Description:
Number of helices of chain B: 9
Number of strands of chain B: 8
Oligomer: heterodimer
Shape of chain A: elongated
Number of helices of chain A: 3
Number of strands of chain A: 4
Amino acid sequence: DRIFTGDQVIRIDVQSKEQVQLLRALETEEELELDFWLHPVSTERPVDIRVPRSSLSSVKGYLHDHNIPFTVMIDDLQELLNQERAEMEVNQM
Amino acid sequence: MERNTKSFNFGAYHRLETIYSWMDTLVAQHSNLVTKLEIGRSYENRPMYVLKFSTGGNKRPAIWIDTGIHSREWVSQATGVWTANKIATDYGRDASLTSLLNTMDIYMLILANPDGYVHTHTHDRMWRKTRSQIPGSVCRGVDPNRNWDAGFGGPGASSSPCSESYHGPSAHSEVEVKNVVNLIKSHGNFKAFISVHAYSQLLMYPYGYSCWNVPHQPELDSVGRAAVKKLTSLYGTQYKVGSICNIIYPASGGSIDWSYDTGIKYSFAFELRDTGRYGFILPANQIIPTASETWLALKHIMEYVRDDPY
């Protein structure tokens, strides 16, 4: 199983076209291994990014440096997946 | 084994085998209406089953619905299961659905990406693509919603096999896509093509590969807005309506662009509900509310297709 312990999903309510551009730049940083659940498109749609634990400080630093506010939508993805799996096992029984 | 569809928990996520087994139960319980067709096999040789809802006739005008082409979007497949059951149980009870099925057929592909779906249950819950192997690359899988012959390889699709939106080596290279293409083409009388995704609450129509309006844009927009109004009436869930390119971003090689260019005017794609808290990990207690509200929109589109033939 691929484990997602410590991975977070952050949500950004994009406030300007400049922020869209900055997030698009972030999208090209392959070494961060970001998984964009919702891509930066416009100020009308939020951006959701699954950030591996190893990239959290880099990504949060980038957002802080560019004054892009964000919220943590999922604090620890693996915890949520464990709950989901436990629920499925109960249902299976 | 599920003994009957009444004992099946529609408010839970299930493995592929459980859903396939449930399909047999549905067919057995509604044998006058539902049949299961194998339209081909996946890359890893799993059968791909379509549920056909038909009251008779030969190649009647038909409506296509697929769910879960992106495997991690679990609420899509779960909504497909609930919807198939709804169609089967409401036939003969709901006058509008009954009249629809007396003139048209409905085809549902609930697990449009079976290999990916199994992979999300066994190895990587976040898997989105197919599982095909790409010669010369360590990365596997193609985005099956970038693989259709509609602006293939254009904007919004990646040529990198490691990308989540990799378009694949050629149009229809993915057998899962090719199987659907073959069925739609050989049938020749599909009037609507609806793909169900999750999440972000959108109802979209073509194009994704171009930001130009399609010739039927005003009509599709109007149908979409009316459908969404009904969806919203249940729980207040807010949807946006528009072309893929204009309300998300350019995305070439998508299924509904292909279906529209093939001549299926009523081509739509849903992005199901988003609580803003869970993304792809929507809790199972959200399945039935999601499916129930989606049904109102789906039904509106299907009724429009029935009443406005072309």
